[in-house]
Amino acid sequence: MSHKTIKIIDIKSIRGPNMWTYVPVLEAWVDIGDLEDFPSDKIPGLPERLVGWLPGLMEHRCSYEEYGGFVRRLHEGTWPAHIMEHVTLELLSLAGVPGGFGRAREADRRSVYKVIVHNLHDEVTRLALTTGRDLIMAAIEDKPFDVAAAVEELKDLAEDRLLGPSTGSIVNAAMERKIPTMRLAENNLVQLGYGSKQRRIWTAETDQTSAIAETISRDKDLTKSLLKACGVPVPEGVVVETADDAWEAAEDIGLPVVVKPSDGNHGRGVFTNLMTEAEVRTAFSVAVDEGSSVIVERFIPGNEHRLLVVGGKMVAAARGDFAFVKGDGQSTIEQLIETQINSSPSRGPAEENTLNFVRVDSAVRLELERQGLNAQSVPAAGHDVLIQRNGNVSIDVTDEVHPEVAHAVALAARVVGLDVAGIDLVAEDISKPLAEQRGAIVEVNAGPGLLMHLRPSAGTPRPVGNAIVDYLFPPGEDFNLPIVGIAGSRGKTLVAQLIASLLQLTSMNVGLACSKGMYFNQRQLDDRHCADWESGHRLMLNRQVDVAIIENDNRGILNDGLPYERCTIGVVTNLDPTDTVPECAINDAEGIYKVMRSQIDVVLPNGAGILNADDAEVADMARLCDGEVIFFSRFGDAACLAEHLAKNGRAVFSRDGQIVLARGNDVQPLMAINSIPLLQLRNDALESILAAVAVGVAMNLSREIMSTGIQTFSHL
Amino acid sequence: MEIVRLRALRGPNLWGRHTMIEALINCTEDECQITNLAGFETRLRSRFPQMGPLIAGGHNEPLTLAHALEVVALGLQAAAGCPVTFSRTVQSPEKGTYITVVEYSEEAVGKLAFDHAMKLCQAAREDRMFDLNAALHELNELDEDLRLGPSTGSIVNAAVARNIPFRRMTEGSMVQLGWGSKQKRIQAAETSHTSAIAESIAQDKDLTKTLLYSAGVPVPQGRVVTNLKDALAAAEWIKGPVVVKPRDGNQGKGVAVNLQTAEQITAAFEVAYKISDEVIVERFLPGHDFRLLVVGNELVAAARRDPPYVIGDGQHTIRQLVDVINSDPLRGDGHATSLSKIRLDAIGLATLEEQKMTPESVPPRGVRINLRKNANLSTGGTATDVTDDVHPDMAASAVAAAHMVGLDICGVDVVCDSVYRSLQEQGGGIVEVNAAPGLRMHLSPSYGKGRPVGEAIIRQMFAPGDNGRIPVVAVSGTNGKTTTIRLTAHLIAQTGKRIGMTTTDGVYANGRLIDTGDCSGPRSARNVLGHPDVDAAVLETARGGVLREGLGFDRCDVAVITNIGEGDHLGMNFINTAAELAAVKRVIVQNVSAEGTAVLNAADPLVARMARYCTGNVTFFAAQSAAHPVMAKHRAQGHRVIYRENGEIIAAQGKAMFRLPLKDIPLTDGGQIGFQVENVMAAVGAAWALDIPWENIVAGLASFMSDAETVPGRFNRFDYKGATLIADYGHNPDAIRALADTIHDMPAKRRSVVISGAGDRRDDDIRRQTRILGNVFDYVVLYEDACQRGRSEGEVVKLLREGLDEAHQVKEIDEIKGEFIAIDKALSKLEPGDICLILVDQVEEALAHIQKRVAEAG
User: Fold this and answer.
1) Which residues contact B742 (CB under 8 A, 6 or more apart)?
2) Calculated CA dihedral for residues A258, A264, A268, A274, nearest 10 degrees
3) Which of A60, B102, B331, B545 could hold A70 in an S-S bridge, CB 3.0 to 4.6 Å?
4) Closest C-alpha among B703, B769, B767, B717 to residue B746
5) Which residues from chain A sit within 8 angstroms of residue B515, using beta carbons?
6) What is the DSSP code (8-state) at residue B292?
7) pTM of the full predicted structure?
8) Could you report the per-residue pLDDT of A237-273, keeping only the tens digit for each?
9) Which of residues 171-200 of B touch A (CB under 8 A)?
10) Distance CA A283, CA A272 (A)
């Protein structure tokens, strides 16, 4: 019996930078059994069937770096794991998940491969992998496969699990600025930056968004009275308890009026431009079901606008328009709404749709009633029927906003106390001051949606996510948490502990995760092995940590990746060719090198790689480092060190019984080696001490701190 | 007896600093002497024994029914638990009419107390029943409903102790602390710095636990489950007793602890699942419940919370034992008392059932029966203060937890054996963090010391020495207020501060007009003090607002009284004399802060006499030499004086002098316009009191322009075909005399004036206006005002004309209907070199009209 199957043996979620790439990936180990003997050219019709189902595969350039490259490989013969990589990526792309990285590599035994694909969300990527496997098997076996249904399923899952577009825009803007981002929960709560440098967002709320301000913004009446007191124009109104009161208030204020719930949202139960007693009473009876009390206020003529204020500045404005349908003499209004309004691609139920579907709800019915129509009426050909007056905000007008209007909305946000606010404003012409046209601010919203600014139905999209990120992280301020990552075969823990000992002499709060546990300053928080992704990640989450020191062992990097996107300082102590990880198919020095280099690959351009000049493999990583390289050496005689110093590089090494700090020809003694108590206890510790001092040099620690920290070290 | 009018004086007022209800009361002749009402006082006292003694205004004055009403209205509030002590009744100038003022702590309670007091007095007169207990209960209920809750109240009290001003923003617990750009807000134990995201995180117990775990804070391990099978599996994995609770819940609803068996877990899951789709199963931490309160980086209080229980006596049922405990007056129904009543509700019954008991069981003597598993105060639990026992590591864990979640004020729920050891050491853990934690258990714990947590919160919000105040200058007087206010604002603005300003023309904040109309009352003042873009406030404080509602602020840094003179608007609101008017305007002087300054016109005797009412410093000014006796004496005592000498304004204190040449102050026209010199001195006095640097004052005086734009209707000058037009809003004898004097000293071929009298003044005040003008001006145009304010047609013009009868300068008089026509008439007769004073009535419209005519003339 032949085993022409693709069996997924295991799927590893590698959550940080790793030997394959900088981004999180899923690494699937698959066993293709007897398909090992059937590359794609040996299965008649397979390439055609795959391309037929997934025409987008033509775009995959693959090894040939040209259009159709991958399909050429299919025809020439390639193996299922490689096909699985491409099919998975194609499925993700069809489901709207942003494109990314893929690899397929042989593992260490026959018919077993690693398929590596970028991973935005475990569940989504896993589904893409298994769907890809099923699709390929169907193609191999020449069985039917419902591609559309599979893509739809994947898309639904992605929409449900991935960040919404508003939060997504902020996260993308942060990524553009190279600010690390981490989701803290399955919702839209995201941490930007690490440790004490972090900020949090939840859709368009920030960690500075005041809870009291939100409470105020939800109370329209209070909001209005506060705004009015500060001279911000608002529609005068009164809270009413009964339909009789509502009508009395409407008469006092003067028609037309607006009737709406005092604490509702999403425009439910809001009725505008009410002209008659009957309309006011009807509106009251609907609105009263939405909230605790109902407001009657002056109707402000004009268009609805939404202005976004971020950090005290107006950054985007959108205008809404009335929604109309044009009669054709045959269709009912209900049908016309479907064909003329809801057919627009910008409308839909999902958050990514700029506009909601228009339904014949109470507000629409009232609007139609006023025109003497109902949903089943058939308007004459060419006759315009007004469907909705509000809720259609999506035409960008940012550049037209009058400075006085911009001032008024910024003031409104300030009065309520919100750092990020969506201001609803009604005015005939946004390019004129409000006072001139009796325009008014009708509502102040906390956590406003950003989509109308990101994807307006007309006009220029506004980079509001960037505005929020720039507000949270003012350009020019360093947002990188100092992180020291340590890799290598031996002595890592000691290096990490020594660095902590140096940094604890500064005023910073030091977080340390190493094989001896996790520490916050002097306090041990965990006594287990903490040289892993999870512990490093805990330090990244900790708002009290000013500097993080993280030991990364090979297994950790292989199974989970590094716990940070980039780091300030990367240390590689040494590389022992026997330090293999057979279960991950890392069996030789070359493999180990690939794993450890990750630590140097992620060093920031303004950071430093700390490398052992005495270890040729490690020293070779200097070429991979985006930042400065600082060598350390026990002997001070390596060729690479001399070369490095000749280029005015920095190094730390021992010479004549001293630890010396060198830049080019300038060599300064730091301390006598025989003055270090640690070496009495562990005579092999010199290499670690040198590495730690090199980190101190990279972090501009004073010589006193470095020598005191080394001499007083006592964590063993 | 009839209450003609009832007002709430919400700020410092004529009668004092308390908030009070002011009632205007008409008494019949009999009622003007209660001894005329036989047995009334005895009947009154029998209905309301707690009432205090009736005290007349003076030894010789009679006790009236109004006095009785006063004492009853105060006494009712006091008996209902309101902290009030002040009341007073005075005879108004009208016979049989009295003004009664009674302090209140809650406005509505004060008003209701007046209602009940009226009914009580009525009942006493007619010898009818009065249900005192029902009235007191109603007042007490209303008061509990309205007054700040204990948490908010403790913070507000702490703010008051730090001299931080406060204002309630809602009927609920939202309060503004501080003013203008320095204001902050609280709502119960939330501050304006409390992050909404942090609150959301605190609501999500699972996420909270993840974050706390990251910070190395001990938490009970566990996970979220969505079905019973998984719940049982999770419990299996945890091994040992577990807690089951809804993921989103509050007040301990649906929480079940120490569950050991599958049956217990199943039952608990069903309950929790009804509250939330996601249920948490986690390790049960044995020990007591503690609440640690973290404010900023500090642990400020800790309490042990014990669930309600009874101890059996072998005789009574559980229900009877509970009733005994609940009869403790300390156990109230609401949140106001330090203990709440124990309820034998469904949860209580279930708890008993687990112990195989019912409310009717009689537990044996000495056996303790728990009535609930959670220890919330609101369900009858008790709190024991343990603040002083907390181990530093325990405190560090609590602070780390608050910090991780991101809350500035945080209630940390800890389960452990004791707080005097670290959590790690004893295997305890943090089970929850709470935003907006209740403070009651720390303020008045059931056992142990109360802790000053309100103070800690205020300390966290306001740095030492910061009282949240912005500089406030209050200005009052008969004439020159608006110019003084605008100039003072301009001088303060030289330091870069953003100014909020209220005037009779409108409210300005940071250079923008935010309200129009007469804005000299307390509402406008409060609006300015609530505006986030205001760093300093200059507030016109007119008598109307002071009489109607009191001041819109508690204290000011500077009170300026420009002058009282003969007064204006006399005869209204029982203010018949200039001295009575001075008593009203003096209210701002009486409420200058201890470090503040009253800037007073020494040349005006009524104003100069206000000095002794000022608890702060006094700066005197007078547009004459330093020889003025009041000034000379004041200066000799080392105090500040401002006077005019040799073309300079001199500000002097002891030997130190600062000189301001009048030629560098365009507003005074080189010193020519006398009343502007006084206004400048008043403004300089205010700026000096606020320590505005002299170079800023000099620059401000040099750059201040008095034109129709900046100070509309205040000596606005125009050139019209070679003649000089002066538009001014002056409308009382003092203002008109100042204008006449100034114009008299200005060279002119012919002087003309356009005037109408405002109808709301006394006949003689209207006549006197033209009497003054007629001795200076050659030609007078009288016109009828737009609004006659209660006068019949032609009446005002007739009075104006009578005033001109004895005038010796006037040669020609015209009578015109309509302000614009009158202006045009005067303009048509102007020759180059003439001066024409136009006393505008509708300021904005008239100025626009004049500007139009000036423009037409080129």
Assistant:
1) B672, B673, B674, B675
2) -10
3) A60
4) B717
5) 231
6) E
7) 0.87
8) 888 988 999 999 998 888 888 888 877 555 567 787 8
9) 174, 185-187, 190-200
10) 9
